[in-house]
Amino acid sequence: MNILKMGIQEQLQHKIxxxxxxxxxxxxxEKIALQIGKIQNTLSPNLQQPTIVIxxxxxxxxxxxxxxxxxxxxxxxxxxxxxxxAAINVFSKQNNIDLKIVDAGVNFDFEPHPNLIHAKxxxxxxxxxxxxxxxxxxxQECFLKGEEIVEEIYQKxxxxxxxxxxxIANTSSATLLMSVLCDLPISKCVGRGxxxxxxxxxxxxxxxxxxxxxxxxxxxxxxxxxxxxxEIAQMCGAMLAAxxxxxxxLVDGFIASSAFLVGYSINKNILDNAIFCxxxxxxxxxxxxxxxGVEPVLNLQMRLGEGTGCAVAYPxxxxxxxxxxxxxxxxxxxxxxxxx
Length: 340
Known about the structure:
Blueprint: H1 8-17, H2 28-40, E1 51-57, H3 73-83, H4 87-94, E2 98-105, E3 116-118, H5 136-155, E4 160-166, H6 170-181, H7 198-214, H8 220-227, H9 230-244, E5 248-251, H10 254-266, E6 274-276, H11 285-292, H12 308-326, H13 330-333
Parallel strand pairs: 1-2, 1-4, 2-3, 4-5, 5-6
């Protein structure tokens, strides 16, 4: 067998298969190693300066009673991120991941901070129960901001970028994006978000069904303009920009996946560079991942957002790279292979 005549995928698969283990014994780790090797077009891939970006914004729909928490929790959580007190801070620190917070449209004026990126479009979107969430100009600005943020991170040497979010009521935006783009009823997409009771959930469903009926949308960008949040739109633009840079894209839970869904609806090839880090406990997430035909790395019954799924899954992704690069082959270790 002439390995040099193989394509990169065949060479990678050969390298994986001839490690000192039964064929396929490392399961998903083998798939992850193969994927990253293909992205980087090398038999010895590496992860450089991993960064998670949390996009944060407020939503006009929050004033319609679709969340269990008041809107001011959005800016309060940004302050918590910047102070290092949130779950994502703990997990990022544990795994040596750089963390950046983006004010995409929070209803608060923040002081400068080294980890805060000021990209505010407005202090919140409009309520999509009454009008489009944002104007076409605002949507275009979101994509430009997302691209600029990725460019700056890329220039610092990062080749793996994770996406998280925060924004009271953003599960409502994500639900509508999913419902329209996946052509599924609201009931197959909606969840309890921050912890709604049955009565509150029924109210949320009623509001979202009314909003869906109000807006006639044709393209992914139309859907995003009608129902998206500034953080979701910037994240979508950033994901598409990261794909153009051939970066490894780590996708968090339900809301981050809804941003990815819009990007996927624009360019399906973005799937090649994406790893879906966990299955959120938010009801619609599994249906969304099934629609895109993808399998998450973890299922820990998490539904926090913030990019926490990316941070928790990162050591597993690193393990996939390490076994590919450092594990002995049958030949190099002098270990006998399975008899044919």
